[in-house]
Design a protein that fits this description.
Elements lengths: L2 E4 L5 H14 L3 E5 L11 E5 L6 H9 L5 E3 L3 H9 L3 E3 L5 E2 L1 H19 L12 H18 L1
Parallel strand pairs: 1-2, 1-4, 2-3, 4-5
Antiparallel strand pairs: 5-6
Length: 148
């Protein structure tokens, strides 16, 4: 198993949780971003810098992910693609996407995109808080415990 991180939008506190998990469990992890990233020295943690552009990092992850891998992303289309390839996707707020719930999330995303295109101000997600971090860490731990 390999952990892939959609790192451009991943909060630093979530990356810190991932660094500790990758090191503790000796799981290879790659952070994919369109900018240089600072990561801890580890034989398990690496970065992959891609060119700037819309969905470039997402496409790179989708092209490299293999069945059984875990992808950390808040991007619903990427999560859907990952699941269709037999891998797993976990949101930085701790929601594990499944074949059942990803369709609902895609529909809601498309609905909200339609509202924004029509000029409706929908706002963004709330700030990541302590409960979100804990939910993510707990879900990651449960997932990794089942897989390793």
């Amino acid at each position: 198993m390999h952990i892939w991180v959609d790192a451009d939008a991943c909060p630093s506190v979530i990356k810190d949780i991932l660094y500790r998990a990758a090191e503790r469990l000796e799981i290879p992890m790659t952070l994919v971003a369109n900018q240089p990233l600072r990561i801890p020295r580890s034989r398990f943690i690496s970065t992959l810098q891609v060119r700037r552009g819309f969905d470039v990092a997402d496409n790179e992850i989708a092209n490299r992910v293999e069945e059984g891998d875990l992808v950390i992303t808040a991007d619903i289309p990427l999560a859907s693609d990952v699941i269709n390839r037999g891998a797993h996707a976990l949101d930085p707020r701790g929601e594990l996407y499944t074949p059942d719930n990803i369709r609902e999330r895609l529909q809601m995303r498309n609905f909200m995109d339609g509202l924004r295109a029509a000029g409706v101000q929908t706002g963004g997600p709330p700030t990541l808080d302590h409960a979100d971090r804990k939910r993510f860490a707990d879900q990651l731990d449960r997932f990794l415990t089942r897989r390793t």
